[in-house]
Amino acid sequence: MTTSAATKLSDGEKLEVLRRLDQFRQWRSLDDKRYCLVCGNLITGRQIQVAGGTRGNGALRLNCPAERCNSIPMDWVLPTDEILAKVEGLAEEERKASALRPPPVIMGNGKAAQTEKSHEHFMSRLRRLASHLKRHGKAVPSNPCGP
Ligand SMILES: [Zn+2]
Description:
It is a single chain. The chain is α+β, with helices and mostly antiparallel strands. It has helices at 11-21, 81-99, 107-135, and strands at residues 33-36, 42-44, 49-51, 61-63, 76-77. It has 2 domains: 11-99, no CATH class; 107-138. The strands form 2 sheets. A 3-stranded antiparallel sheet has the order 2-1-5, covered by helices on one side. The chain has a two-stranded antiparallel ribbon with strand order 3-4. The site of zinc ion has 8 residues, from loops. Zinc ion is lined by residues 36, 38-39, 41, 64, 66, 69, 71.
């Protein structure tokens, strides 16, 4: 939190500052909402942080209340129906994403099972080969790979 840098203003003063520093859109009240294009949050004038100007002559700055968001007033657009739908959609997607988490992939187990399976397969092939050799023992040389 950067509360030490934040400037305490009355509602009227804050609205005045918003109007002065955000010349891109009109502020009718501190409850006006803006959509921050940088962090994707809906913010109200009340939430916007005013920093600087503590000595009376310093320049005031408007900051998005979101953490680590360095947006400027130009990034705050009026939340049109389209924007609101988009925000809703994003929130919905996030909910879905957290609800439909893919099952955890356990490489070790999967690999072990795979090895076990192929090992089994190999053993059954050996057994089949052994029984084949037993049945046709006479036709196969006793030591085909030997010297
Ligand atoms: Zn922001």
